[in-house]
Amino acid sequence: MEIWQILLLAMVGVAAGWLNVMAGGGSLLTIPVMLFMGIPGPVANGTNRIAILAQNITAVTAFRRRGYSDFKLGFSLAAMASLGAIGGAMVGVKLDGVWFDRVLALVMVGVMILMATGHDKIKPTGGDSKPKNLFAGHLLMVAAGFWGGFIQIGVGFILMPILHKVLGLDLVRVNMHKVLIVLVYTILALGIFASNLELMWWIGISLAIGNSIGGWLGAHTTITHGEALIRRVLYLALSAFIIKLLFF
Predict the structure, then answer these.
(1) Cα dist from 9 to 19, 27, 103, 174, 244, whole Å
(2) pTM flag (> 0.70)
(3) Tens of pLDDT, residues 54-94
(4) Where are the alpha helices (H) located in the chain, listed in sequence order?
(5) Which terminus of the chain, N or C, has fewer Cβ atoms within 10 Å?
């Protein structure tokens, strides 16, 4: 790679990492850049997991250092998501084309509707936020994990309503659990992609540096500014995502 490519990937990674932790859709920035560089779709899809892994290690660490961690619930949710991610990754290694775009856009519309309704019933940030509907939440994690293993793009938009609307967690804790869940299943998904495809490791490492910085910033922004900013970022990201998928 040339120097300008490394710098471009790192800068895109910072934006993607911040957006992924705050809401989702950061892979919609990183994967097109890799495609622009001539990397085949499945390889770009797999290489992106290197950056996702680094980003979420940083984010989980940042949340924990600020006093936000619940590994018992987080790992149980991650275990269920990992079951789905294994199947999704096995499909994803053969992925080619953009046939899923309109279906994904419809999913995003549904997520926006879910996140916009009934949020007044959620416990405030910083208070007692005990989860509810644990069985349904864990079951839905399998489907979310499948999508994450399959394509990763937009998985945050799927995880957030499960954690927020089904389990009843405030949005700060939603992001706290989200980064741990993605971290765990990404280890498995990356292993499957790496064993089936020749990943671009140097590109992945360049992205990982940026994603790690963005993930750290996203975790601290989440904790510092709380639900109001998370909700605004989420809606803006969802809107941009839907427009991109449907019209471009």
Answers:
(1) 15, 12, 28, 28, 21
(2) yes
(3) 999 999 999 999 999 999 999 999 999 999 999 999 988 87
(4) 3-22, 27-36, 41-65, 71-92, 101-116, 134-150, 155-161, 171-196, 201-247
(5) C
